[in-house]
């Protein structure tokens, strides 16, 4: 994907009013799973970011921007990359490209699935962590839909997953991703009380602007395997937030 005049127009007219995009990927593979982005398409995404001089920043840097009330959209096309679920194909397909391009990303891991068939194992996760390009967040213990769980189950999914990941990986787990994007006011408080610095949902979260200070339901934009070029441009410009669902609590 070459430098796009359409992107220049989007950034010219919407760059200061649209929030910095946080992108979600799931599987990066050539299988036919609905969530899977083919490897060739993912590489074209990364090439596009590089050719268009995107500033790919970590979630830790993003969190600093929010807490310091900086204006990220005044920077040159800033964007965050996140990957949910912790599929093993990330290590074989996405990681080599991110490492070669020196791009940071956050993996949200389902704690109970580490080492299971199709999911990352501890050695793979630790190898990526050692690069300081990859950070790890919690995607709960078992990927249950949190609004349907009782208080004891919520404590297990939210608090225990943080403890388990920190013990196994030897690093601090600062961020939480709600499975299926589901959360409530009580769930947000439990996440905050567990010690997470921020939490991320999907398109039912809020767009973080000067009007919103709640960093425990931050909206992200999901990349789809059937996205056409215009839809991709809209998503990576931040304008994609304008077309997603309103907050649900």
Task: Describe this protein's structure.
This protein has helices spanning 5-14, 39-51, 59-67, 89-101, 122-129, 151-169, 185-193, 229-237; strands at residues 22-25, 55-56, 78-85, 105-109, 134-138, 175-177, 198-200, 221-222. It is an alpha/beta fold and 249 residues long. The chain has a single domain (5-243), classed as Glycoside hydrolase/deacetylase (TIM Barrel, Alpha-Beta Barrel). The strands form 2 sheets. Strands 1, 2, 3, 4, 5 and 8 form a 6-stranded parallel β-sheet that branches. Helix 7 links the parallel strand 6 (175-177) and strand 7. It is globular, with a radius of gyration of 17 Å. The relative contact order is 0.16.
- Helix and strand run: HEHEHEHEHEHEHEEH
Q: How much beta, percentage-wise?
A: 5-15%
Outline type: globular
Overall residue-averaged pLDDT value = 85
Tell me how many strands there are. Answer: 8
The number of helical runs is 8
User: What is the CATH top level name?
Assistant: Alpha Beta
- Name the CATH superfamily classification: Glycoside hydrolase/deacetylase
Global Rg: 17 Å
Uncertain runs: 12-17, 205-211, 245-249
CATH architecture: Alpha-Beta Barrel
Task: Summarize the main sheet.
Answer: 6 strands, parallel
How much helicity do the residues have? 25-40%
> What is the end-to-end distance?
38 Å
Tell me the domain tally.
1
- Might you state the CATH topology name? TIM Barrel
Structural class label: alpha/beta
């Amino acid at each position: 994907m070459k430098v796009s005049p359409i992107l220049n127009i989007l950034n010219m007219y919407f760059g200061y009013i649209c929030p910095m995009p946080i992108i979600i990927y799931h599987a990066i593979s050539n299988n036919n799973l609905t969530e899977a982005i083919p490897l060739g398409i993912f590489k074209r995404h990364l090439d596009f970011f590089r050719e268009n001089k995107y500033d790919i920043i970590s979630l830790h840097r993003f969190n600093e921007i929010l807490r310091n009330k900086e204006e990220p959209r005044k920077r040159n096309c800033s964007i965050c990359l996140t990957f949910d679920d912790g599929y093993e194909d990330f290590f074989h397909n996405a990681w080599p490209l991110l490492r070669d391009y020196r791009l940071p990303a956050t993996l949200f891991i389902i704690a109970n699935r580490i080492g299971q068939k199709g999911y990352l194992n501890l050695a793979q996760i630790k190898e990526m962590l050692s690069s300081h390009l990859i950070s790890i967040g919690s995607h709960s213990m078992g990927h249950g839909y949190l609004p349907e769980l009782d208080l004891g189950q919520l404590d297990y999914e939210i608090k225990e997953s943080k403890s388990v990941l920190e013990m196994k990986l030897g690093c601090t787990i600062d961020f939480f991703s709600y499975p299926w994007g589901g959360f409530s006011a009580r769930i947000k408080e439990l996440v905050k009380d567990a010690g997470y610095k921020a939490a991320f949902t999907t398109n039912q979260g809020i767009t973080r602007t000067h009007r919103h200070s709640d960093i425990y339901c931050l909206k992200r934009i999901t990349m789809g395997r059937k996205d056409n070029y215009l839809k991709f441009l809209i998503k990576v410009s931040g304008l994609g937030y304008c077309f997603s669902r309103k907050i649900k609590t």
